[in-house]
UniProtKB/TrEMBL annotation, chain A:
Domain of life where this protein originates: Bacteria
Organism, scientific name: Limnoglobus roseus
Classification via InterPro entries: TPR-like_helical_dom_sf (IPR011990)
Protein name, as recorded: Tetratricopeptide repeat protein
UniProtKB/TrEMBL annotation, chain B:
Protein name: Chaperone protein DnaJ
Gene3D superfamilies: DnaJ domain (1.10.287.110)
The species this protein was found in: Limnoglobus roseus
Highest taxon listed in the record's lineage: Bacteria
UniProt lineage: Bacteria, Pseudomonadati, Planctomycetota, Planctomycetia, Gemmatales
Short name of one Pfam family: DnaJ
InterPro entries with a match to the protein in the record: DnaJ_domain, J_dom_sf
Domain spans labelled J: 3-62
Length: 758, 99
């Protein structure tokens, strides 16, 4: 026989359920639970709880303005009080709060109830229906408040003597005495009075905000939310509407949103601020000036002009408009406004001493140059792009600013001859735009004023080298090195320029010049480029018929095993360029042929060899067999994989040499073999990703790069080698940009400019 | 960002030498090991004003940023003298209806 299932017992409610219902604003449920609890266990405790819940419901309904519910709650409370006299006073308090003084006092005419009656009289500012005990104090308190508000503190104090210890207005007496002390900066007395207030009555609630400003312990005892609220109340009390208005402005300023709604508040606040705090009014103007630059629209400036006077530094708002236009990429307008601002500064405005104004003009002209330079990439946006732009933004694409950056850099440099930046920028632009004569003139004029300016000397030295004007390059680099003799890069450049100059003279047949230059360059060039310089020494000696000297130097050069192939290469090519007799070149040619056929060269041999080949190319020299040499060197790089020698650093150098000569195809054969060969080195997967970008095309390339970059990152993170760790930042940057369409391609890691950093 | 002229206590027309002298004086008064925050603020202010280029750059492009609405609110609170608060204002501020 199946057992009969007992019916499910409903869960017994607890006081906590009633609290939870109150918390969520379900007063009906809360009252229901509390009432049920009194029925289940009719104790004093449960009745007290029921009254507490009724009081909370009463407060809640009053707040919400639900009159009917307030009445019903009071009725329930009254019924309870009739049955349970123990809760009569608590219920009487509710009636007092509701203004039913008669019922309240009939239930319990206690001092507590009287005080609540008194509170309601003050709150309503009338005492109709109040009992005689209350009426007596009511007029006293009214008078005392009037006196206090009129600044008659002594009179108010005197009046308050009429409130005795048993008066229902005792709390109000303490409150007013504290308020009076607060207004006269008697903080200690204010705190002393307010500390005696009972939290149950209204005066304690009213005193809380000002008390919070002078009684840190009181503020600290509040829950954070209340403390914030009290601080806000105190701010409002301290400065009336002014602070509220400023807070409203605060919500808009410095955020990524339109400024339009802020002006209503500004219009209200500004006159008050100008009267009460003239200096802060000016500051508010500055804040909104800056806000317009960052968040503004043209209408905002119109509003601003109606409220604030123009700033002394920008009376026509050209600077504001220029910066705002820059921010919104309306560059043609930005340039126009900057020009107007510069013209204003040129008119010797007040507050701008001549030196400051001139430098400011130079800075602005330079800035215009930069804007034009940045905007100057495509001469005109292609037609199809213009259509796409129109369809996306429903507006024509922004107009390209008009003007030549060179003109602005030049004017800037002329205004501030001691400021190098515009001269550098002008020079760089002239070099890029293939105006060598103008570039040289810029540098020469600048160096005439600042002959020891290293950045410009380096620029000019490299410029001459690029022009294959080796002797001039050497002179400039020597000048730079004289300024800073310990600069290793400058020493390299002097060595490089010396070698190139000697070689030019060798080709030209000026043996005397070669001998002189070799002697001069010995100290630097022999150290930084031993093979190239040694080879030239050998060739010059041979040309001069000093064969024994040549043989002696040659044998010393070949003693460096890793540079031997490179020495053979230099000797062979220099011999050819110097038109040595075939017999004089024969030995070097043979050694070179043998080196280029090496089935397993050391990676450093390849690195030095390719470096030498690149040196001729960099000097603008060509010779028969040059392309073949390069092919063979690249093939050697692949052969180097068969070598059992060479560290990861040696292979890294070789890979960098290949990359510099754009040998991407060879790199894509070599790198996948080096990655497993050196399992801890992050460089190889990173460079494979880099090479893939340069060489690879087609769908999926980003995924391959992402995989390689992940591997590079894993290795860099696991490594304790500083140069591995240094790669991390670059790897992370590219990894992040991979998530963006085309992001990886615009990353500096792939841009080419930063290649030297690897 | 606080106004660097105020931080260093120098007039707006101070020259390189005056700014440097004041900076060194303040650095002696507020050594970094004893006043890390103050000395960092002094250093930052000095960087903004140390030479003509820096001063012009600051005046043209950054001076406006030295003012913030937060600082204005703070100043209003500090500069407003304690005043006689009326009962009605207290009721309003506390959000208690009735008067």
């Amino acid at each position: 026989m199946a057992r009969k299932r007992s019916p499910a017992t409903p869960p017994v409610p607890t006081p906590r359920d009633a609290e939870a219902a109150l918390q969520r604003g379900d007063f009906v449920k809360a009252v229901e639970i509390a009432k049920a609890l009194t029925n289940l266990t009719p104790t004093d405790e449960s009745h007290a709880h029921y009254v507490k819940v009724l009081a909370a419901a009463f407060e809640g309904y009053t707040r919400l303005g639900k009159v009917k519910s307030v009445v019903e709650t009071l009725k329930a409370a009254e019924e309870l009080a009739n049955r349970q006299p123990v809760v009569a006073e608590a219920v009487a308090v509710l009636h007092a709060k509701a203004g039913e003084f008669g019922k309240a006092l009939a239930l319990a005419a206690t001092p507590r109830v009287h005080r609540h009656v008194a509170d309601l009289c003050v709150r309503r500012n009338q005492a109709d229906g109040a009992p005689a005990e209350v009426l007596a104090g009511w007029s006293v308190v009214q008078t005392a408040f009037r006196q206090y508000e009129a600044g008659q503190d002594d009179a108010a104090k005197e009046t308050l003597q009429g409130i005795g210890l048993t008066s229902p207005f005792l709390e109000w007496k303490l409150f007013l005495r504290g308020l009076s002390a607060f207004a006269t900066n008697d903080t200690a007395r204010a705190v002393e009075n307010w500390q005696r207030l009972s939290a149950e009555y209204l005066p304690a609630k009213l005193a809380a905000a000002p008390r919070g400003t002078i009684d840190p312990a009181f503020l600290a005892s509040q829950i954070p939310e209340t403390a914030v609220n009290l601080r806000r109340q105190a701010e409002t009390l301290a400065s009336g509407d002014l602070l509220g208005g400023l807070r409203a402005i605060q919500k808009f300023v410095g955020r990524d949103q339109r400024l339009q709604p802020v002006w209503k508040e500004v219009e209200k606040v500004a006159p008050k601020l100008r009267t009460a705090h003239p200096k802060l009014f000016v500051k508010l103007g500055t804040v909104l000036y800056e806000a317009i630059i960052r968040q503004g629209e043209p209408t905002d400036l119109k509003k601003y002009r109606t409220i604030f006077p123009p700033p002394a530094d920008d009376p026509h708002f050209h600077r504001l408009e220029a910066m705002a236009c820059e921010g919104s990429q309306v560059l043609d307008m930005a340039v126009e406004h900057w020009q107007k601002y510069e013209a204003w500064l040129a008119g010797n405005p007040a507050g701008w001493p001549a030196d400051l104004a001139t430098r400011a003009r130079a800075l602005i002209l330079h800035r215009i140059g930069d804007i034009l330079e940045d905007a100057g990439l495509p001469a005109q946006m292609p037609k199809e792009f213009q259509q796409v732009f129109r369809s996306l933004f429903d507006t024509p694409p922004p107009a390209k600013p008009k003007g030549n950056p060179d003109d602005f850099y030049r004017r800037s440099a002329a205004l501030a001859p001691d400021w190098p930046t515009p001269a550098y920028d002008l020079f760089d632009r002239q070099v890029e735009s293939k105006a060598p004569a103008a570039a040289e003139r810029t540098a020469r004029e600048f160096l005439a004023r600042r002959p020891q300016d290293l950045p410009m000397l380096e620029r000019l030295g490299k410029f001459f080298r690029g022009q294959h004007r080796m002797a001039e390059s050497l002179d400039v680099f020597k000048q730079a090195l004289a300024t800073n003799p310990l600069d290793a890069k400058l020493r390299d450049n002097v060595g490089l320029a010396s070698i190139a100059t000697i070689r030019r003279n060798l080709i030209d047949g000026d043996l005397a010049a070669c001998e002189r230059l070799v002697a001069e360059a010995e100290e630097i060039a022999a150290k930084v480029f031993p093979a190239a310089f040694g080879s030239l020494k050998v060739t010059v000696a041979r040309k001069a018929g000093r064969n024994d000297d040549a043989a002696e130097i040659e044998s010393r050069l070949y003693a460096d095993r890793l540079r031997a192939a490179c020495v053979a290469f230099d000797l062979s090519v220099d011999g050819l360029l110097a038109k040595l007799k075939p017999a004089q070149r024969k030995a070097a040619d043979a050694r070179l042929k043998e080196a280029l056929a090496n089935p397993a060269p050391h990676p450093s041999e390849v690195y030095y060899l390719y470096g030498s080949w690149g040196m001729y190319k960099g000097e603008g020299l060509t010779y028969r067999g040059q392309p073949t040499h390069e092919k063979k060197i690249v093939a050697l790089a692949e052969n180097a994989l068969k070598s059992t020698e060479g560290t990861d650093v040696d292979f890294e150098s070789m890979v960098v040499a290949l990359f510099q000569h754009r040998q991407h195809k060879a790199m894509l054969k070599i790198l996948p073999k080096l990655t497993p060969r050196f399992p801890a080195a992050p460089f190889f997967p990173l460079f494979e990703a880099k090479t893939l970008y340069h060489e690879g095309r087609g769908y999926g390339i980003e995924y391959q790069m992402a995989r390689l970059l992940d591997e590079a990152k894993r290795r860099a993170e696991a490594s304790s080698v500083p140069r591995h760790r240094m790669l991390l930042e670059g790897i992370d940057q590219v990894r992040r940009s991979l998530n963006l369409p085309g992001g990886v391609f615009s990353s500096p890691l792939f841009g080419g400019d930063d290649d030297e950093d690897f | 960002m606080t106004d660097p002229y105020t931080v260093l206590g120098i007039p707006p027309d101070a020259d390189d030498a005056a700014i440097r002298a004041q900076y060194l004086q303040l650095t002696r008064e507020f050594p970094p090991e004893e006043h890390p925050e103050k000395s960092a603020a002094i250093r930052h202010a000095y960087d903004l004003l140390k030479d003509l280029d820096a001063r012009v750059n600051y005046r043209l492009f950054a001076a406006a940023r030295s003012e913030t609405i937060d600082a204005i609110i703070e100043d209003v609170v500090c500069q407003t003298p304690r005043r006689r608060i009326t009962l009605n204002e207290l009721f309003r501020a506390a959000g208690i209806s009735g008067r």
